[in-house]
Amino acid sequence: QVQLQESGPGLVKPSQTLSLTCTVSGGSITTDGYYWSWIRQSPGKGLEWMGAIGASGSTYYTPSLNSRTSISRDTSKNQFTLHLSSVTPEDTAVYYCAMDGGRTGYWGKGTLVTVSS
To answer: Which residue of 29, 45, 53, 101 shows the fewest CB atoms closer than 10 Å?
Structure first.
């Protein structure tokens, strides 16, 4: 069974970079056909897909966040990491990592990140 766990600081100051790591167990982030995503949810905004990284390392980002978002991975640790630069209080949200396997999907429990000085 695939399990995902988000980790990282819960408080980030404005203008800094938000970095969160997703640790995957029960499956490999290099498995063909799977995409590993970051999604966030803030009050009144619903779920927002931010980006994903594929098995080969290819990355995809939503246009609205493309200039500030990057996703990297460490295959030796079976982890992938979100970097969101130049954050503002509007970036405060619960951040989730997830796996999209086409027919199947798994989500982490999410972690709240607050952007505040």
So the answer is: 45
